[in-house]
Design brief:
By secondary structure, this protein is an alpha/beta fold. It is built from 12 helices and 14 strands. The protein has 2 domains: 232 residues, 3-Layer(aba) Sandwich (Aspartate Aminotransferase, domain 2), CATH 3.40.640.10; 125 residues, Aspartate Aminotransferase, domain 1 (Alpha-Beta Complex). The two termini are 33 Å apart.
């Protein structure tokens, strides 16, 4: 079977290094916010080109705590794209914000600057105080344009980089553009722990200090909570030690993802599916290789019958989900709805071989030909 993500296979080349890192933590007797977390925070911030990194319990907490740290308060509007995972909007709600959903670009499927401008100039934009661009599927958002809009209106920007570790615009990595950024280290991510984990990254020392307090009961000194109360959201030493190992290999793994994505692009060119856009000043990391077709479900089942697991991420827009229906907008989100109805993620991860990619691409092309014959009858 060729699967969309295989955490065990991805980890296998570095298994001995990971076991040694775990043994090091076991022998140290330090398991929470110790030297491994501190070292990972320094190393990850330096790798990104940012000033500070604060490890937290997971990526959802990272978005929430970043929003709180940049100044989002109860009732503030926070813009999110409607085609992302529900964790993003759940984090906005947890931070006390009021989600304001926005449409996306038809090619990258990321937040559309022109739609954001229209939203901000409409009555629905009156309460907006922050924007959360999601670098979906590992493709960078149009940060130059989004930041220009944010600066014009005094908005705070928190990047959601859960799927984009190492993606960049030119030489500048995502996660270093906004006031803060949130990362997830869930086991299927490009930079993956053995369990949950996350981080907030910023170059603002005041924002970093707020996150450090918020992640541990609001403490600015031990056992004394001051200012706004926080809670328990800490990256543990075991996960930090594993992440330090994985970080050493991340550039190579991202390069491998780009090689496999290029092989898909060459094999599927002109087949009738909408393929990921060719980078224009952007360097994606292909957390997912997403194609689009109105026959998404038929293609998914065709591949499944041939031992290929492809997934629809994410099939239901946020404003159509019962938990978030109260924030459904009065304006149209045509691109989001079309994307959610058509997206299918083909397997792409460093453990796959060129032969695996050729097998998947061949199965996709067989479906295209079969579908074309069926439609012509």
């Amino acid at each position: 079977m060729i699967a969309n993500a295989d955490p065990k296979a991805n980890l296998a080349p570095y298994a001995d290094e990971v076991r040694a890192a775990i043994a090091r933590v076991f022998e140290s007797g330090r398991y929470i916010l110790g030297p491994e977390v501190a070292a990972f925070e320094r190393e990850f911030a330096a790798w990104l080109g940012s000033g500070y990194c604060c490890g937290v319990a997971n990526g959802t907490d990272a978005v929430e705590l970043a929003l709180r740290a940049v100044g989002v308060r109860p009732g503030d509007g926070v813009v999110v794209p409607a085609n992302t995972v529900s964790a993003t909007i759940a984090a906005v709600v947890a931070a006390g914000g009021e989600p304001v959903v926005c449409d996306v670009e038809p090619d990258t499927m990321n937040l559309a600057p022109e739609r954001l401008r229209a939203l901000l100039e409409s009555p629905g934009g009156a309460t907006v105080r922050a924007v959360v661009p999601v670098h979906l599927y590992g493709h960078p958002c149009a940060m130059h344009e989004l930041l220009r809009l944010a600066e014009e209106r005094g908005l705070r920007v928190v990047e959601d980089c859960a799927q984009a570790h190492g993606a960049s615009l030119g030489a500048r990595k995502v996660g270093t553009w906004g006031h803060a950024a949130a990362f997830s280290f869930y086991p299927t991510k490009n930079l993956a722990a053995l369990g949950d984990g996350g981080a907030v990254v910023t170059s603002d020392p005041e924002i970093a200090a707020r996150v450090q307090a918020l992640r541990q009961y609001g403490w600015q000194e031990r056992y004394v909570s001051t200012g706004e109360g926080g809670r328990n959201s800490r990256l543990d030493e075991l996960q930090a030690a594993v992440l330090r190992v994985r970080l050493l290999h991340l550039d190579g793994e991202n390069r491998r993802r780009r090689v496999l994505a290029a092989r898909y692009a060459a094999a599927l060119a002109g087949c009738g599916l909408v393929l990921p856009p060719a980078p224009d000043g952007a360097v994606p990391v292909y957390h997912q290789y997403v194609v689009r077709t109105p026959g998404r479900e038929a293609l998914r089942l065709w591949l499944e019958e041939r031992g290929i697991v492809a997934q629809a991420l994410y099939p239901l827009p946020l404003h159509h989900q019962p938990a978030f229906a109260r924030w459904a907008p009065a304006w149209a989100l045509a691109q989001c709805e079309r994307c959610c109805a058509e997206v299918l993620s083909l397997p792409v991860h460093p453990a796959l071989t060129e032969a695996d990619i050729d097998t998947v691409a061949g199965a996709v092309l067989d479906w295209v030909r079969a579908d074309s014959k069926s439609s012509s009858r």
